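so my prof wants the structure for this chain in the tokens format not the other one, which i didnt know existed until like an hour ago. anyway here's the sequence
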Amino acid sequence: MDSRFGKMKPWIAGSLPFLMICFFFNWIVPGVSEALRFGYYLLLYCLYLIALTFYNIPHMSLTMYLSPEQDDRDSATLYRLFCALSGSVLGNIIVSEFLASVDPGDGITDPCVDTNETVNTNSTRLARNPLEMAFIAANGTIAGFMLISGILLLIGTKERTDVHIGSNGSDKFWKGLKSVMSYRPFYIAIPAFITQLLTIQMMFSNTSLYLVYSLHIDFFYYGIIIFQASNVIHLPLWQMILSKIGKKKTVVLGIVVFIPVLASLFFLPEGNIITAFIFCYLIGLGTSCAQLLPWSFVPDVIDDYVVQTGKRNDAVFYSLFQSFNKTFNGIGLGLSTLVLGFTGYDTGACQQPDSVAMTMRVLVSVVPICLLLISLVFVWIFPITESRRIENSAILAKRRLLHNSSNGALNLKTEAKD
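here's what i got, hopefully its the right format
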């Protein structure tokens, strides 16, 4: 969509209100039957994911329209991920604070604590309980932050029109899709980096259960906050290493550092809260590299594609990377749930069988290590080396210079005729 506001911003501006509304109403419990509630949440969550896609793809593709320089794009990627992950940590803190404000005496009981209190199961939906109101208030606040961040994105960035110089424009969607899917660096990059992003998903979805059932840590949520905070604060560190030794070497270094940490998780003793929290910090260090590097490679793949084909299909690249990422994250989460189900895990139960503890150790150590080893193989054969990346940057800069020189000469001839 080309307009005077840019190519990506209209999509962001148009999807932002729907994204906020769908997000907020996902936390409203309607006073209807269970079957109707299921349909309500299914429809609303599908609409939320559609709005999120319409927001995310242009948001990520905007990186390519902020600057033609690769270093600027790497900095933009770092800043985008830093803000996104910081927002995730902030969201968790907001929800925790609102829930902590709920008075336990307001009819909210812990099902795993034996008390003489009874819960009125026949209460109507006319009055919401304090816990529901806390969730609504917390996520209403988060929706407000979504609005603020979206407005700042729209008014604080400017799409440059000269990024297309050096290319022959973009293909139609289906032609571009076919071209991108057959492009060798792309189909090598997909398994190389999807396995890393899948590793992150495994750690984020399973670490809390690992702390609770394998290590028997009561205050596990502090470990999750340490993990997420470490994941955020180490992004600049990996960006600095990236700028010093190159992207492929940084990926290899990150994997080599992360694998011993993951292997240690299998053998950590139960009940040692200090050791558990130290390893939560180290997990964040490893996932931080896996979070940053895949998205830093996307602009390089696009630049190489432009050099080789003369076409720019930025949105196709980002949409495919995001589609593969979401698909495999869903597969990973589904497989984790399936494996836990086979071992006897019962959601909401106060006690879990011993097999769950061993399963969690495998899911946060053995499985991620296997994924990272697969990633390491594909990173090793990834064809865009640091020298090729620099060469591509020089070729595109030369094309822009020739284009500007040609336009300048044409303008001088026009003026001379006049």
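also thought this was worth mentioning. The CA atoms of residues 41 and 99 lie 22 Å apart.
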